[in-house]
Amino acid sequence: MPGTASADWLDKLKETAKDLTDKAGEALENAEPTAPSTSDGEGQVKKPATTAAPAKPAAPEPKAVAAPAAPAQPAVSGNNDKTLVRETQKELKRLGYSIAVDGAYGPNTKKQIIAFEQSQNLAASGNASAELLATLKATPTPQAATTTAATAVAPATTPEEEKTAEKKAEEPKAAQTKAEPKKSEPAPAAIPDILEAVIVNDDPNGEAGWIMISAPENAEATVAEIYFGENKYRHKFTYFSSNITNKEIPFEAHITTQNGSYNYIGRCYKYTDCWGEPSPKVSVQTYKDFIDLINTAGIFEFQIVTSDPAANRFGDKTYKVHMPTPEKQAAANKAQQEEVDKIAAEKKIEAEKIATAKQAEADKIAAEQVVIAAAKKVEEDQNKAIMAELSPEGKIAFARCIRNEYAKKYYSCSCLGNEIDQYVDSTIAKRVKRLTQLNSGFENAIQKNNANPKLSAERKAELEKNMRKKIEEQKQELEIIQNKPSWNATMRQEAVVSAETYLHKATTCKIADSVRVENYNYCQKYKMPDYVKGKTKAEYCTCVSDKAAEYWVTSSRGFDSGVATSARTVGLHACRK
User: Fold this and answer.
1) Long-range residue pairs from 166-171, CB within 8 A, at least 24 positions apart, any chain
2) Owning domain of residue 564
3) pLDDT in tens, 220-229
4) Residue 126, by phi and psi: left (phi above 0), alpha (psi -120 to 50) or beta?
5) Which residue intervals are annotated with compositional bias (Low complexity) in the record (predicted)?
6) CA distance 504 to 97
7) Does a structural domain hold residue 477?
8) Does residue 164 sit in the same domain as residue 140?
9) Contacts for 246 with CB less than 8 Å, ≥ 6 apart
């Protein structure tokens, strides 16, 4: 009858509300004065505690609620929809339920869905559905200071409890507040009783590989990996411990089949890397023996034993592990090969890119070298043409200039080659004049010595002999330096070097362009001085470079290490205004 159904529904609602209120009262009575962590370290969210300890709240007054229609049962197929399950888990977590958001429907997900349905007076199906997700999203987020069950009911307090609450309210806020403990890592999902293994070979010869153990309903959630091969052994236990970094945990892994057993003794230092070696009692010696052992039986038992039970997520339990069907193993092998092929293809593409880039760089360098070689060839041809028109001394001066980077920057090499002859002639003329004067001086000295009565005839003869020898040597030198065609290479080199001293100081062959460019670029690199007024930076730098170039081409000094600085200093000072 409709009336009876409505009454039964209301009675059930009252009983549920009273039960939830009783639980909330117990939680409030046992609550600590400070808020604990919101997680138990394994993803199980704890109910937040209140700062006061009120008495057990009274049962809420029943409200008149119209009897709703019987809720439709959600489709069980929704549990297989990872996106729907993940969104459901996300909303449950927002409302304070202890659940991991991983899209996998398991016992804990079902448990938390049932808890929410009961709190909302819905039919407790425990299944994920679009209707359930809509209800979850419409439910407001509970306040942090209240428990899930107590959000709809205000607890009653006794006079003594009211006084205690008032006294606590008067205490300094800093004295009541305690630092919340750090949240630990969320707990992994429970490991199913039945597991499944997949063989993964990473060695083309089959000498090494992995046995991946996972939950059948979610092959991506690996429980453990067992590596065997190349005299290196490793176990990787995803759920062995949540945080054991820098903590050594010894353990033993036992694999037992109808045909034999395999024991592994190792130590964990990180929960994803556990290393060790087989037990002396191991009955297999190679990876192939190991695979044959578990493949022949088709099923094996898997157990982890450790001296640190608190870190062992596997507990003392022995798990049944099934080898995959040929179809599943073939699919796994295909996926593995596809991954290998994908990596190989990516490496090939990357190698081709690198090779292409290297070839492009090589081609660029080769092209630049061709241009440089062509320019060098043009320059060499020009230099040969210039030298063909020069005197022997001009050739020496020109060759010395083009080999010197600084000389090429500050002088016209062709000019030096053409002008050097007159400076050589001038230098030789000065040398001839000096030697002639010396010989004349020797002749005068001989005459004075011979007229000196104080000198003996022997002494006069000795002095005249020595001076006549020097006069003869200098006459021979005069004959050589006055006959340029007879000069050897050494004499020509010495004559040119001596003449360059005068030619470099002359303004004849100095060039301004290199000095102008050099100083303009230097000026552009630095901040414009504050004392310069009425000029843009370009105008200022142009002024500096022009003044430096003017100083160089009009100065009477040859190039040396201080010329560049001197020319720049002149330009900087001249362009202040």
Assistant:
1) 168/33, 168/51, 168/52
2) 512-577
3) 566 777 777 6
4) left
5) 46-75, 144-158
6) 93
7) yes
8) yes
9) 269
> Reduced to 3 states, what is the DSSP secondary structure of residue 123?
coil
**Does residue 164 share a domain with residue 63?**
yes
Q: Are residues 168 and 199 in the same domain?
A: no
* Residue 369, phi then psi, degrees to nearest 5: -65, -35
144 and 90 in one domain?
A: yes
Q: 508, 541, 556 — which closes off a domain?
A: 508
Distance of CA 304 to the CA centre of its chain: 39
User: What distance lies between CA 201 and its chain's CA centroid?
Assistant: 32
Residue 157 lies in a domain: yes
Q: CA triplet 161, 166, 172: central angle to 5 degrees?
A: 130
**Hey, which residues does 278 pair with through a beta bridge?**
264
Q: Is residue 518 located within the same domain as residue 489?
A: no
Say if residues 445 and 460 touch (Cβ distance below 8 Å): no
Same domain, 21 and 167: yes
- Number of domains present in the structure of the chain: 4
Q: Pick from 99, 119, 98: which is nearest to 24 by CA? A: 119
Tokens of 324: 């995959």
**pLDDT tens across 203-257, in order?**
766 677 778 888 776 655 667 777 776 555 556 665 455 555 556 777 777 888 8
Task: Name the residue with tokens 């903590």.
Answer: 247
Asked whether residue 376 is domain-assigned, the answer is no
For residue 267, list its beta bridge partners: 250, 275
pLDDT at residue 179 is higher than 50: no
- Whether residues 401 and 489 share a domain: the answer is yes
Model confidence at 28, pLDDT cuts 50, 70, 90, reads very low
- Whether the CB-CB separation of 552 and 522 falls below 8 Å is answered with no
CB 197 within 8 A of CB 216: no
